[in-house]
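Quick board copy: two proteins, each given as sequence then tokens.
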Amino acid sequence: MDSDSLTSPALHGTIRYRRFWVVLILLCTIGAAAAARRLFALDAASSSGLSPFATLDLHFAGRAELTRLHVVPSLLFVLLVPLQFVSRLRQSRPRLHRWTGRVLLGCTLLIGLSALRLSASPVGGLAESTATVLFGCLFLFSAAKAWWHIKNRRVALHREWATRMVAIALGVATTRPVMGLFFATSRFTGLTPQEFFGPAMWIGFLSTWLAGEAWISYTRPHRRSVSTSAVRTAG
């Protein structure tokens, strides 16, 4: 048996897990920066200035309490969620893992419900509203499924639905670079935030959700055991 036939899949898996962590930390960082910026803007927003950013800040400042109810738990969510994927923490500090999980569940409820409420008056009109309502409902459903499975000690299914929930939540972070691209090219395209916020939301949520589904499929125990058996058979 060629030793490379066994080490290569293991190395490939390690590289994929490293990429997963890079993407997770990057999106959490973007999400934390966006949440912190929005909280600052709520206090700093004023009627002066006619820039698109000032207009957006005024839009959210008009619903400051609801926006804070959405942004504060979102900030806590992106700060805590990486801990749920640290296997050493799950094994060595199970109580801490469960505690952070409960905090995240509470954040999830506040994030999802406030997002649905904010969808009633979106910046990007119907296109944005349909995206936030659809993925907001899927976010809450995934959280409920994750809670149900862990309550019934179905750990593998719990992790799948928790991963799905996180992927959907981090779709908001993915929309930020997309919106940045739209903002940067607005002088050439003539598009306003009201026109590109909807497409940006759909692009961000869909791309991160699909990436999450691909990761769930890759890490599913049955698929990995079959893949390992196939490698050994070939060797």
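And the next:
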Amino acid sequence: MTDPGGGNAMTEIALALAMAFFSIMVLAMISMGTGIQPMRPAVGAVLVPTAEDGNSPAIITPGPKDLILIHYLGQFYDSELKPVEPVVPKAGGRTILVLSPEISVKEALDVRAQIDTKNLIVSTLDERWLNTLRSILNVEK
């Protein structure tokens, strides 16, 4: 008489191999589908720098060749709050565009379109700057 469990060993080995193959296939599919790609901004995109924690804005330190443009109530100002026209800085310099946080996205994009430079940093005015601009321009909050 033959043992009824004698053929089970080959069946169990085949089942174990099938499960292993299936597990490897699932892992391969997951790893191919969720691969982390480096982020590349769209052409003409504006990137706002953030601190390493990702939650708070980074402090932008302007260099000697950098141009600071402040846009408030439809007018451009320099770092000394004198009205200016938006110009491109000298070679090697960045343009730091500082916008009022109260403007709409459409207006921000329109302002961005007025500045013809690739090396642009966009930030927003903090409460101290807003208060200073309001007091100089006699604007009510």
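Board note added afterward: The mean pLDDT is 74.
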